[in-house]
């Protein structure tokens, strides 16, 4: 990796709103080559994501999907796994159960893997040089295990439990940066970085604090998955990289973040709001800059 321009991609969590990340990334890839947009796996050296972002990272990186393929697979996957809620929210012991069936999620993920002409038990990483033998479907299942939505998954001989990191790092840009630093030293990464792109799944609108029990739970959940605070603090920490215009953050403004993680019927709204955001000349100019494409025209305003 060292000694050449490096491109990193970070993808937030957000359930079905992950489609917004894909539409945004699609526009970025089209900015590179409108006629033949590159696959993300051929452009980015590292792709990281949380929850739904982690699932997309696996599909784009390990399964080497194009954006169009990933969008289609993601829509089909979300329709399968969010099709039916559990009617009884508690088990026989009175414990709260997750809202959706984890086995359905596992089956759907394996189906996606097989559609790529791969063994459904293929490993996430090449086993050479590592003792980790996590399967692709296990990693995808783990990153998709959003609290209250799907059960955690046990992986490995010791049965270690994994679930998504939405309540800890819903914006995983720091984790991605740390992983890159571990692979090469900080100075080399700073010198060789061509671009780091962080993409969100929409900001929520401002809401007052609801003092009902469920309102408090929902508000705390919203606070826990707030991603812009992380984006802002990372901007401050890496201000020199932002000043050099090698770090970029894209996230549809307030409103889309109010769409629930499982509200698949809101796909059209997600597409519409994302398209409106991407129509901004400011965003388009930023995307051209981020991939090193000079604008095709300039606009001069002259006061006669």
Give the full name of the CATH homologous superfamily: Cytosolic phospholipase A2 catalytic domain
Task: Please provide the count of β strands.
Answer: 6
Q: Extract low-pLDDT stretches.
A: 208-213, 295-304
Structural class: alpha/beta
CATH class membership? Alpha Beta
Sketch the major β-sheet. Answer: 4 strands, parallel
Helicity range of the residues? Answer: 40-55%
Q: What overall form do the CA principal axes indicate?
A: globular
CATH architecture descriptor text: 3-Layer(aba) Sandwich
Content of β-strand: 5-15%
Instruction: Give me the strand/helix succession.
Output: EHHEHHHHEEHHHEHHHEHH
| CA radius of gyration | 20 Å
Distance between the termini: 53 Å
From the 3D structure, determine the CATH topology: Cytosolic phospholipase A2 catalytic domain
Number of domains: 1
Keywords: Hydrolase, Lipid degradation, Lipid metabolism
Motif (DGA/G): 164-166
Domain PNPLA: 9-177
GO cellular component, one term: membrane
Structure description:
The chain has 304 residues and is an alpha/beta fold. It has 14 helices and 6 strands. The chain has a 4-stranded parallel β-sheet, sandwiched between helices. Strands 3-4 form a two-stranded antiparallel sheet.
Please write out the topology.
Layout: E1 6-11, H1 18-32, H2 40-43, E2 46-49, H3 52-62, H4 67-81, H5 102-114, H6 136-143, E3 153-155, E4 160-162, H7 166-169, H8 173-183, H9 186-192, E5 193-199, H10 213-224, H11 228-237, H12 239-243, E6 247-250, H13 267-278, H14 281-290
Parallel strand pairs: 1-2, 1-5, 5-6
Antiparallel strand pairs: 3-4
